[in-house]
Amino acid sequence: MNEFEEVYNKFKPDVYRFLLGMTYYDCTAAEELTQETFYQAFLSFGKFRGECSFKTWLFQIAKNIYAKYVHKESRQRDIASRQSDETVPPPTAELEQKELLSHLRTLIDELEEPARSIMQYRLYSDQSYAEIGYSLKIRANTAAVIYNRTVAKLRKAMKERYGYEI
Fold it and tell me: pTM for the full model?
């Protein structure tokens, strides 16, 4: 097994889980984005300088791939919604869970940087504050403080805007 295969086998579940959260738990999109992430990583593997962990490097690539995906999806969303004639509503509990996650995701997307990135890295990839700090070029303690303050803000906003207590 070559070195890249080892990296792939070791970090694929982490990258997939990160992208699964970023895509509102769309398994198909998360799998495609994971494959694209590792494809781009493979192309750039020789350029990896070792200034951060492979995991941190892969999450940066995944986040960039996701940003491209969102841009592309926003253009295609209107076309898809016009083509969709009828949808079957999911069961109530599943609908409530998706609604809660959608509202939370909306609030996270509205956050300013670096709070938005910190929340995405913590919630969707469970990165340590040290890894987040390295990615965002801030101290680990700063990342932890911003995360905790942002969680409090999100809880308050979820209750005030949507009536959810999380």
Answer: 0.63
Per DSSP, 45 falls in state: G
The three-point CA angle 30-111-124 to 5° equals 30
Q: How many helices (H) and strands (E) does the chain have?
A: 7, 0
Cα angle value 103/159/146 (rounded, 5°): 75
CA–CA distance, 23 with 36 (Å, rounded to integer):
14
Residues 6+ away with beta carbon under 8 Å from 4: 41, 42, 45
Report domain 88-166's class: mainly alpha
The hierarchical CATH code for the domain 1-86 is 1.10.1740.10
The predicted pLDDT at position 77 comes to 61
